Amino acid sequence: MADAEALLEELLGELQAEFPSFRIAKKRDSRLQRAIHVALAILTLGGQRRYLTEYHTVLFGTLWVPDAWDAASDESRYVLLRHERVHLRQRRRLGDVGMAFVYLVPYFPIFLAYGRARLEWEAYEETLRATAELHGPDALEALRPGIVRRFVGPDYGWMWPFPRRIHAWFDDAVRRIRVGSV
Ligand SMILES: [Zn+2]
Q1: C-alpha 83 – ligand 1 centre gap (Å)
Q2: Where are the domains of the chain?
Q3: CB 43: neighbour CB atoms within 10 A?
Q4: What spacing in Å lies between the alpha carbon of 180 and ligand 1's midpoint?
Q5: pTM
Q6: Which stretches of 61-162 are DSSP H helices?
Q7: CA distance 120 to 144
Q8: Of 89, 101, 110, 170, whose CA is between 20 and 30 Å from 178?
């Protein structure tokens, strides 16, 4: 098993070099983040109530961390930062306006947010890749139910509520990672 503490330190260095203005801040300390929390709870009819306590969000180059960050292990911080680095790169590719457009605008209607789903597929593939690095590819299957639920459920506003499509994507991603790790 890889040394998560060393990997995390290395990754933080890489992030700082690639995105000099990158910083990590607590959601609970931000009035805007608290307002987003309330808005999401309303928009999802209470389906998403864990924005402040459990969800990580990149906004304008800052990673906003929930209460759970303090208690998180090096391993989960590492995997999470690998996921968020994808979003930082997407932001550089699309720009803030483009990213906001692709990510937020399709919240209305709240169902079927294909733009958001595409960005998250890319980022979750990195989550799987980082997990395979730490724990081996056999550990990936355990992540399937949680990830599928994120796409089809209220966490991200039912962004792509077609479980078969998500399962197919998951299978493809695991296959690509297995091929890459041989
Ligand atoms: Zn994400």
Answers
A1: 6
A2: 4-181
A3: 15
A4: 22
A5: 0.79
A6: 74-103, 114-135, 144-152
A7: 14
A8: 89
